[in-house]
Amino acid sequence: MKSRLKKVLIPLFLGFIGLCYFLFNNQFWTHLNTDNFETLAEYEGENISGLWGRQILVHKKFVPYLNKIEDLAVKNNIELTINQGYRSNKHPLLGAIVKPSKVSNHLAGFAIDFNIKHEGTTYSSKKLKRAQLVNLPKDLQNFIKDIRQEKGLRWGGDFNTQDPVHIDFPINIRNKKTWSNYARLSAIDYENASFKYQFW
């Protein structure tokens, strides 16, 4: 009986260890090779990281805005965990807090969804709503204030339907034709990309 139990438990345990390793370290199934990308770029920062090590993809022209967002995060002693940057319209969005728009700036690579980490606490959608701002630590209040004052950026907490974990550059409002072109070119990069593990 013990021998049979070992034969079952040991592979299960090793499989679990392997799954944890790949989930938190080498997420080859979510990381694309960006060498041949013409429109999208991979973003890596000191105070901005992908949820569970996910790759952060955004439009190349959004990178300067993301750099500014990172500067504001550093200034205000917070870290951003990115849940989503670029989003393909061919993949369903699971667990969305706000129903995604058909002309979302995520589709053009001009938006991020995030959680905030500050002094060991994670702040997500419920804690970041407009009505909660006065209850947040000063660093978080200042970060949101800085985003609101930054030319070109929008904080989703100011939308009619609040999306407080969203920041974007409103390319979909400023120039619908440009948004459409960026979304099309981003999709081409994404759909033709190969996974990084193929090049190990």
From TrEMBL:
Pfam family, one: Peptidase_M15_4
Molecular functions (GO terms): peptidase activity
Annotated InterPro entries: Peptidase_M15C, Zn_M74/Hedgehog-like
Chain ranges passing through the membrane: 7-24
Keywords: Membrane, Transmembrane, Transmembrane helix
Limits of the Peptidase M15C domain: 101-168
Signal peptide coordinates: none
Protein name, entry field: Peptidase M15C domain-containing protein
